[in-house]
Amino acid sequence: MIKRSTLRFWLLLLICALLNSPDGRSAEEDKTFEGQMSPEAFEHFVNGDLYELSGDFRAAIAEYQKAKALQPEIPEIGYALARVHLATKDIESAKREALEIEPKDARTYHLLGECYRAIGERDSAIEAYFKAVKLDSTHLNSLWYLAVLWQQKQDIDKAIQYWRKLGSLQSFSGSVHLQLATLLSQKGEYDEAISEYKRVLDVKPDNRKALYELGKSYEAQEDLKNAIMFYKKLLDLEPSNDQLRNRIIALYYRTGQIEEAIKEAESSTFFSPDDPEAQKRLGVLFLTQGDYHKAESLFVSYTQDRPDDAQVHYYLGRIAFQKEDFERAKTEFETAVSIEDSVPDGWVNLAWVYLKQDSTKKAIQVYKKAIEKVNDKVGLLYLLGTAYAEEKQYDSAIVILRKASDRSPHDTQILFALGSTYEQSGDFDQAVATFERLIRIDSTQASALNYLGYMLADKGIRLDESQTMIRKALEYEPDNGAYLDSYGWVLYRLGRVREAEVQIKKALEILKDDPVIHEHLGDIYNALGKTKKAKKAWEQAINLDPDNQKLKEKLQNIK
User: Fold this and answer.
1) Structural contact between residues 213 and 183, judged by C-beta atoms closer than 8 angstroms
2) Which of 123, 203, 229, 476 is 20 to 30 A distant from 426 in Cα terms?
3) DSSP of 154-166, one letter per residue?
4) Each residue of 187-214: pLDDT tens digit?
């Protein structure tokens, strides 16, 4: 028990503290509280407060309980008792005391919120904090926990609401604006998020989280220039942050700033000289830049320690291919697929080497083997089908391309290959049906419009439709010589021979060595009765296509 000789002094201090406390009571209410408490209860209350201040919570609880026993109706006594129980982690006692307080003020509801939060009853905690804020809209601690708890519950809109309220009540709080910006960014409201991150940087220019998140927000907006700028500012603070540097390198690469990417990659090898991945990244950049010598040097050095990296053998194969060292290219691509046979790139490039060497049959063998190994078979089926078509094995080509189309029914590239293969095989009806299907999927594909339009014109059927298709193709590519030839040919079929002559001549200005266009011009001259010019045009055509029997017959029959 504290001696009465010192009690008056401590009473005066306590009353002053109460009068100036931020608990939401006015001076008038404090006087009422003092007048309501009996001298004996007040003495126990003051003793409890002093024990609490000295850290003797056990003694404080005993004194507060004595005060409450004398005057249980005084809210301040119950609040003090609940507060000390909470401080000693006796949550149930704290909650019980707080629930008994009537009337409850903002402080009491906040204390209840703390109790519920401590035992994991999040919804009850939110309800208590909400009641505290309803009684006192400026209760910062309750607002803070409301924001935190709604954020934990993944209710981003409510969390943003309370972070905004906190931000408006405080002169500046970096943590509040960072939290708000992060949630706005999660919602995709990047402009507002960026504004909040910049508010933080205005006060704390070296705030690393704000710099990083600001870079991410700009990146999400595809504003890669600003993303790089803020990532670079952060990198100045963390020069050995390889993860951040790699992100910057990737953005430089995406924006085509290969020189800048190389500089960063070279810095990466400086800060991490023993990191083989940094060496590999630099090699890829040199390869992209076309500096094959430097790229090859790095990759060869890399394979000395890591000979089983399929990707690097693939890159070495590409370099050899560019140098037209096809045997070396084959060796590297074969090594790549022997290490990792489920990735299509090695197989595709190995087949391309054979195609470059006019070994279509060997390319077909590679594609077939790849299809056995690779999960995503559509692209390989397409390539195998076109290889069969190149070999004029049309039946096999059609079977394979139909498989590819069944797996990817809206792939117009596959449909184009299938339609043209049907046409080359002589199956006109299937070719027309396939191209019509393609055009229904994509009515803007000029090559398909021209191909189908020309087929119909060459057959002399559906000529008005043919003309419309080819004219539409020319709207997309007005200087395409093949399309101009098709347009001239449909005009010829329509009997508009002189208009056809104009279009065919335009086509020849673009494609001077195309035998079909020369043949068409000869046909037009022949129709106009210009036999000498017709003969000359056909002769030019047969010089370019000496095995064309139809042309030979035309020349034999001309007078």
Assistant:
1) no
2) 476
3) T-HHHHHHHHHHH
4) 999 999 999 999 999 999 999 999 999 9
The residue type of 323 is: K
Which helix H or strand E contains 140, and what residues bound it? helix 140-152
* Residue 344, SS3 per DSSP: helix
Averaged pLDDT of the chain: 92
CA dihedral sign of residues 287, 291, 292, 297? negative
Question: C-alpha distances in angstroms, 80 versus 33, 46, 111, 114, 168?
Answer: 14, 11, 10, 14, 31
Q: Which of 311, 317, 372, 320 is nearest to 349 (CA)?
A: 317
Average pLDDT over residues 83-112: 96
Contact 498, 511 (CB under 8 A): no
| Lookup: tokens for 203 | 């006060």
- Beta-carbon contacts of 22 under 8 Å, excluding residues fewer than 6 positions away, are none
How many whole angstroms separate alpha carbon 151 and alpha carbon 156? 6
Contact status, residue 491 vs residue 472, Cβ threshold 8 Å: no
- Using only C-alpha atoms, the chain has a radius of gyration, in whole angstroms, of 41
Residue 544 burial (C-beta neighbours within 10 Å; 0-12, 13-18, 19+):
middle
Find all residues with CB under 8 Å of 456, minimum gap 6, and list them: 432, 462, 463, 465, 466, 469, 490
Q: CB–CB of 428/451 below 8 Å?
A: no
Domain boundaries, the chain: 523-559
Q: What is the pLDDT of residues 160-178, one digit of tens each?
A: 999 999 989 977 788 999 9
Classified as helix, coil or strand, 511 is coil
Task: Label each residue of 287-313 as H, E or C.
Answer: HHHCCHHHHHHHHHHHHHHCCCCHHHH
Query: pTM here?
Result: 0.68
CA dihedral 11, 12, 17, 19 (to 10 degrees): 110
Candidates 302, 292, 363, 300; CA nearest to 330 is 363
Round to the nearest angstrom and report the end-to-end CA distance of the chain: 137
How far, in Å, are 149, 212, 333, 367, 450 from residue 278 at the CA level? 42, 22, 23, 33, 49
- Render pLDDT for 281-332 as a digit per residue (tens, 0 to 9): 999 999 999 999 999 999 999 999 899 999 999 999 999 999 999 999 999 9
